[in-house]
Amino acid sequence: MKSILDNRPVLAKQVADVAEVAGYLWQKGWAERNGGNITINITDVIDDEIRNMKPISEPVSIGTTLPHLKGCYFFCKGTNKRMRDLARWPMENGSVIRILDDCSSYVMIADNPVKPTSELPSHLSMHNYLIGSGSSYKAALHTHPIDLIAMTHNPAYLEKDKLTYLLWSMIPETRAFCPRGLGIIPYKMPSSVELAEATVKELADYDVVMWEKHGVCAVGENIMEAFDMVDTLSKSAQIYLTAKGMGFEPTGTSMEDMQALKEAFNLPK
Ligand code: 13P
Ligand code: ZN
């Protein structure tokens, strides 16, 4: 079957990276059923032939207006599609969409009319924010890591930066590779524009945020970077839980040692 990826190695590689990460999410146990979603901004690698492709769907409303997305293109996981299937057959479980000139609707253009994720308002709002703020980030990831979600069921961890410091202090890598910490977004209805707006607000300070009692949302230069940050935070959560399981409260890296890491790695916070 013909695919938009044919003879487009750069685009094909980006979709292959999404598929690879989708496989990791399943292996991690973070992707029950259709849990989680991925979108990547592929506008940079779109050629004139793609620009002239006929839509394969009617226009669909996003539910919000996103002025920076006019004419942008995204590869999106399909709603109700499984990560484990996206891993093997990305173009059957995801699609390429074009944002229309009204900045509030999209059409699907390839390969199949697979309706994008129900979290599209959040994903596209994040991409809109990133473009508007001059960021080079192209990827957005939402997933359901068991350990990090469990922690949001304790009100004590919902206090601003409580989890950031706890998780940073479990292993130096988390301090270094998730340097903007972990934002917290109080519970909101999944898929809602309200959730999208709350998520975008936090991106000014964080690359990774928790959706209370639901999941995590990360943005990054590319999908591997976004995955790595969540993986690193989850590793820290595992260390914390393992220590607790052995019956003691982990000591945690001291603030002094964390400050030294900040200076050594030239970290933003
Ligand atoms: P989708 O299948 O629509 O992507 O939804 C999965 C999910 O995790 C919703 O929050
Ligand atoms: Zn979810």
Write the layout of secondary structure elements.
Elements lengths: L8 H20 L8 E5 L6 H4 L8 E2 L11 E5 L5 H6 L5 E6 L5 E6 L9 H13 L6 E5 L2 H6 L10 H7 L3 H6 L4 E4 L7 H10 L5 E4 L3 E6 L2 H23 L9 H11 L4
Parallel strand pairs: 7-8
Antiparallel strand pairs: 1-3, 1-6, 2-5, 3-4, 4-5, 6-9, 8-9
Helix pairs in contact: 4-8
This protein binds 1,3-dihydroxyacetonephosphate (13P) and zinc ion.
What does this structure look like?
The chain is an alpha+beta fold. It has one domain (9-265): 3-Layer(aba) Sandwich (L-fuculose-1-phosphate Aldolase), CATH 3.40.225.10. The chain has ten helices and nine strands. The protein has helices at 9-28, 48-51, 83-88, 120-132, 146-151, 162-168, 172-177, 193-202, 223-245, 255-265; strands at 37-41, 60-61, 73-77, 94-99, 105-110, 139-143, 182-185, 208-211, 215-220. The chain has a nine-stranded mixed beta sheet with strand order 2-5-4-3-1-6-9-8-7, with helices on both faces. β8 (208-211) and β9 form a beta hairpin. α4 (120-132) runs parallel beside α8. The longest helix is centred in the C-terminal third of the chain and has 23 residues, at 223-245. It is elongated, with a radius of gyration of 19 Å. It binds 1,3-dihydroxyacetonephosphate (13P) and zinc ion (ZN). 1,3-dihydroxyacetonephosphate binds at residues 34-37, 77, 79-80, 117-119, 142, 190. Residues 34-37, 77, 79-80, 117-119, 142, 190 line the site of 1,3-dihydroxyacetonephosphate.
